[in-house]
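Supplementary notes for students who missed Thursday's class. We covered one full example, reproduced here. Read the sequence, then the structure, then the short commentary at the end.
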Amino acid sequence: MSRPINDGSAASSVKDWDEEPCEHDPTHLRTSNQGYMPIEHYGLIGNMRTCAMVATDGGLDFMCWPSFDSPSVFCRLLDKDKGGHFTISPRRTTSVTTKQQYLPSSNILQTRFLNDDGVLSVIDFFPRPYAKSLLSHISSGAPAKLANAPQQASDKLKKWLVRRVECVRGSAEVDVEVFPAFNYAQNKHTTDIYHHKLGVGPGESRQRAVFTTDDLCLELNVTIDCGDSSEEECPIVLFQKSQGKSTLGEGIMARFRLTEGQAVSFVLRDHPGKEIAEMEHINSDLLDRIQKDTQTFWFNWISKSKYKGRWREVVSRSLMILKLLTYEPTGAIIAAPTFSLPEDFGGARNWDYRFSWVRDSSFTIYILLRMGFTEEAEAYMGFISDRFQKSRTEEGALPIMFSIHGDTELPEIELSHLDGYRGSRPVRIGNGAAFHKQLDIYGELMDAIYLYNKYGKPVSYDQWLAVRDITDYVCRIWREEDMSIWEVRGKKQNFVYSKIMLWVAIDRALRLAQKRGFPCPKMWQWRSTRDEIYEDIMEKGYNKRMGCFVQSYEANEILDSAVLIAPLVFFIAPNDPRFLSTLDQILKPPEKGGLTSAGLVYRYNWLKSDDGVGGREGAFSMCVFWLVESLTRAGAYDKKYLIEAINIFENMLSFSNHLSMFSEEIARSGEQLGNTPQAFSHLALISAAFNLDRVTGGTGGV
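Structure (token representation):
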């Protein structure tokens, strides 16, 4: 039975719990950082539908529900007062050391709080169903096998957020705060607390909270595990309503003490309705099995990886991050799970990355196929193929990005009521670049199709017909200006990167026709256009005085690290003097005309290049890994470049966070900037590691 609690007299303010924090309490990083945790102090959990960001102080500060691109329920990451959060931590007066890691070979996050009196462990995950337990297979190191019997209803994908706090040594007081802020902190909500009597055993009498807004109703269940304690010694968890600092509705708070072996679990889910709520008994045994099944899922998944090189740990983590960024129902892979994290603290370069870019397609498919993840590559190829068949304009143009469902309407909106991370405004959702003219996407798409045919499955005749149409379109428009890979919001130009990728588009179509013997009535026209583009780039995109390729035909004295792509897509040999002189120029520090500072690489000199946005930005993580791969390929012919590649790669790894996660950019101070974790950063990392292993024979030596 469930009954609402008449707790009006219990309603309180967050101020009631405000206590003088000690020097090393879990929140000291927030108080010293304008109320925000550093971007690199977050871990990611997810279920290939949505995800959440959990800070090292136990604060779950970001979650969109029920999908990646849904409105947020918690977004304290973007507004410390109004954003909403779900925090589990030791009492603020407790001085602790914090540690955060993933459980082995999984995306189950563990945050530990340690001091002389006790150790708390907080486990965070979204469930993934698996039929067999991991434990019987761990000793052999072999992937667990699926049972032949059909899965029970309880083994289906549960769209739950599970947070479990356990005392593993001594004792400790625990504070829990749940303050949702629905629809990007725009919608009001009501909060109801119910007493839920399910049995007579220890921990069976408990409360649940229900948060209700216009179009969403979430239920928070609590389960108590007494361990070896008697019923009288079992922890008591009592929810108390509280009005948040600026949230549009009440949250709940609870404080309780745990002793060694005791645990309390919280499950946040869509309100299942009365009948299911009465039927489905969430207890400790069920949650233990779900956690083991989830760990089995991840253990088996990463066991398929073919990467056995020197940097196996960081590559495996990058692969698991990419898996978390996959929207399983369609196969789409988002650029990043967050929105509007700034490229400069206090700046305006704040964008929504919760969408799938065509540009990422070739890099994603290449990495997935080479690492052994053929199912994911096939699903992503299916998503991209379906889009270019359905979403092309009458002229033959493609949108540059799609929603996870394949939509192209992604209106960019500014949320003026949110303060932004550390005051970085505006906070944007949607993306105004969706209909930008970015001609490079045809090269990435055609490269993806070519690679899929080479390493995955043969493309069909109907897909070939689409390839012919796209190639004909490229032959018609290759001279036009665009906004290119960096999605500039200023004037269009003849960007060298785009010209290179247009060359790639025609080149891959020609290669595919030759390898498969497909009919190609315009082959000679394609060849002529491809060669014309090549010579055009060499004439107008290379500055002989500077000795380097430049950003665009118009900005022919601006260096741009995007040209590092040239040998990676076989446009130019990595030992070509023109490219080597470009490498040498990029390796110079910015004050000497280069783009590299302390081993980090900038996209371009933002003081000289007008991209229509303004403001500062950090070094670009992806560009560092592109530099590493370019140096590696050049190093196959000259060892000095290979030594430089290894040094820069190892240096860059030191800028990851404690979980080997990379955001989009790195600040001059070494802090992470921009949306995190970014798929492109991790794709480029894997590719750089793979090629370093290839050139060094897998030893990392020269």
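Commentary. The first helix runs from residue 28 to 31. The first strand starts at residue 2 and ends at 4. If anything here is unclear, bring it to office hours.
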